[in-house]
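hey can u run this one w/ S-adenosylmethionine bound, need the structure tokens asap thx
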Amino acid sequence: MSRVTNAIKERLPAPIVNALHTYRRRSTLRAFAGLSTKDVFTKIYEDRVWGGVGDAEQKYFSGSGSRDTAVETYVNAVRKFVQSLDRKPDVVDLGCGDFHVGSRVRPLCARYVACDIVDSLITSNVEKYKALDVDFRTLDFTQDELPPGDVVFVRQVLQHLSNAEIARTVHKIPERYRYLVLTEHVPPEPFAHNLDKSPGPDNRLAIHSGIVLTSAPFNMAVREKTTLCEVQEWGGIIRTIVYRF
Ligand SMILES: C[S@@+](CC[C@H](N)C(=O)[O-])C[C@H]1O[C@@H](n2cnc3c(N)ncnc32)[C@H](O)[C@@H]1O
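ok here u go:
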């Protein structure tokens, strides 16, 4: 955003700035209405909705939560968790995106399967990360069988999906893995758990809600829940929790 635009924004009254944000959000979301989930995420990357505009090197960009301090804090917390296990785990990364984050976690693990719903993104990751010994797969985790492993990572993925899609996935996770490492962008407490939305580039922050899998309607049963790390971003918190089944 230009300095002039910023200067104008700073002088506008808050209700007008909020109305402009709401208008912009609605018009962005209209472009995704009626698309299948695969087409939604393919379009997000093609149109660079999550950023990376003007960076020819960076054809796929999974958003600001996949960069900056959020990543350092996350990788350090995941390292501690992985090192607390009795051996390097076999892992599955559902919704691996541009793999900027996954590439940092990969050396901490034994077998690494990384999945995403966007075919061209997976093709690009196979080439870009060929030195890292990762089994990249195109897969829709809401429909397809999940690859086996000890730990499943789901980082800033469910926040973009509808409750029906999450519900189709949640029951498969405790059957398949010993641990779920879940990262979600949530508003400051207190907030409404699990309000519904359509699949899209936005999350539930605008409706003051966030995903909590142990609450209704998902009611995921867990043996243990530990918060690994939290980072403040965009007026909310990027929170990572480990669930043990
Ligand atoms: C915001 S990005 C996060 C990427 C990565 N986990 C990270 O933290 O950088 C969300 C990713 O989830 C993928 N995704 C969404 N729904 C999916 C589904 N049903 N099956 C597999 N991947 C999905 C999207 O294509 C996108 O790459």
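The chain has a mean pLDDT of 91. anyway lmk if its weird
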